[in-house]
Amino acid sequence: MTQRHLNVGVPARELLEPLRALREELGIPESFSPQAEADADAAARRDPGGADRRDLPLVTVDPPASTDLDQAVHLARRGAGFRVHYAIAAVGRVVDSGTVLDAEVRARAVTVYGPGHSFPLHPTVLSSGAASLLPGDERSAYLWTIDLDASGAAERTRVELARVRSRAKLSYEQVQHALDDDVALPSGAPAEFPRLLAEVGRLRQAIEVARGGVSLDIPEQIVERRANCYELEFRGTAAVEGYNAQVSLLTGMEAARLMRDVGVGVFRTLPPAAERDVQRLRHTARALGLDWPRSMGYPDFVRTLDSAVPAHSAFLDQATTLFRGAGYEVFDGGAPGRALPHGAIAAEYAHVTAPLRRLVDRFGLEICLAHCAGTEVPPDIRAALPQLPALMSEGGRRAGAYERGSVDIMEALVLERFVGRLFTGVVVDVDTRARGERERGTVMVAQPAVQATVVGDALPLGEEVQVRLIVADPATRTIRFELA
């Protein structure tokens, strides 16, 4: 699931009731049962052990407010190439199969994010405490060592259980500032880390382009309350976020390779984008005043965009809906006889880098660990594999619905004072299945950058139109325009 960033600049009482109703409608639990919390307390006291690698000067790179720190990274030169150390929280070594905690985690499947809050996959004693790679604290982790050649291509990968200690919790802004302005990082963080992250990240981005993959520079969506109204804006991302993401993608692709080698695994799959959805995005680009040449493909066009530019940010936000039909493919007893690529990554890929926030990662990590140790995959891991696609599908559906509903609420808050006003937009989609005298479709309005339902007679697909806002209701999460 693609995660968009949601934020609320000023806490607003108007948001609370619609968000509460949305949570209850989707059945998202606010808390864990007393027994699950007791299981989590016991898990927090467990020491999984592992090889002593506390010498590695690992750091985490996350948004400033994050406390559920799944990964810590260290980069070093290795001759003409590089060595990547990637420590991932050892959740699978503290959450036991068959416990009440395990049952409730499986039922949730993912952490659910909303504007300024989240509903975590694990109790906070684990997700923000004993299992999180917090700076200065010793933790057991799945330590990946990935050797890259001078071009950034992976040459060798191994995984081991190790005791590690993160030296610093860095924000994207800190690392970008250090890279751009040669400013020192906080004490404990290696001085060469920003430059190495940029170097490795750029090499991996070049490899991504060569294989036909594309990564979205997803902007943060902000709602600010000013005087008696709300304003919607997008905040661009730093370049180091893309570099950091490339390390995670590298690990996921290497995990898929290890799983294929051992003949047991669970891949993240995604079919290619449908042509109709690509055309919808072309219409969206036109609505936002972006020049997308007919001869240029989607991956090449996305690489021309900068999330710091408002119109580009709005397009990138809408581009998260391009790829549909993501799922998981499980195999056991032998590798698949066919390739199972991820349509956006353009390679086989597995989720293993976020076990605090995603259920499936816990099992993928144990498979890779067993393979590298030369041992059998644990029976409880193999037994869980067939259920994972359905669990992840339902958890992802709830999380996606909550995210979309939260966006609808925020956009309705922004627009409610403009009911009755005319806007200029482009019809980006028409629902050919809609019945009735009036057609129903989707219109993209450039200012503020909102995509919503439009009704009218003979909606002109791909053309600029004048539309009137007739509904903007945060309580029902409804925005509707009509052709003027």
Description of the structure:
The protein is α+β, with helices and mostly antiparallel strands. The chain has 13 helices and 18 strands. The chain has helices at 13-26, 34-44, 100-108, 124-130, 172-181, 193-211, 239-262, 275-287, 298-302, 310-319, 359-373, 379-384, 388-415; strands at residues 5-8, 51-52, 58-62, 71-78, 81-89, 112-114, 117-119, 138-148, 154-171, 220-226, 229-235, 265-269, 327-331, 422-430, 439-445, 450-456, 464-473, 478-483. The model has no long low-confidence stretch (mean pLDDT 92).
Topology:
Elements: E1 5-8, H1 13-26, H2 34-44, E2 51-52, E3 58-62, E4 71-78, E5 81-89, H3 100-108, E6 112-114, E7 117-119, H4 124-130, E8 138-148, E9 154-171, H5 172-181, H6 193-211, E10 220-226, E11 229-235, H7 239-262, E12 265-269, H8 275-287, H9 298-302, H10 310-319, E13 327-331, H11 359-373, H12 379-384, H13 388-415, E14 422-430, E15 439-445, E16 450-456, E17 464-473, E18 478-483
Parallel strand pairs: 1-10, 2-9, 3-9, 16-18
Antiparallel strand pairs: 4-5, 5-8, 6-7, 8-9, 10-11, 12-13, 14-15, 14-17, 15-16, 17-18
Output the keywords.
single chain; 484 residues; alpha+beta; OB fold (Dihydrolipoamide Acetyltransferase, E2P); 2 domains; 6-stranded mixed beta sheet; 5-stranded mixed beta barrel; 13 helices; globular
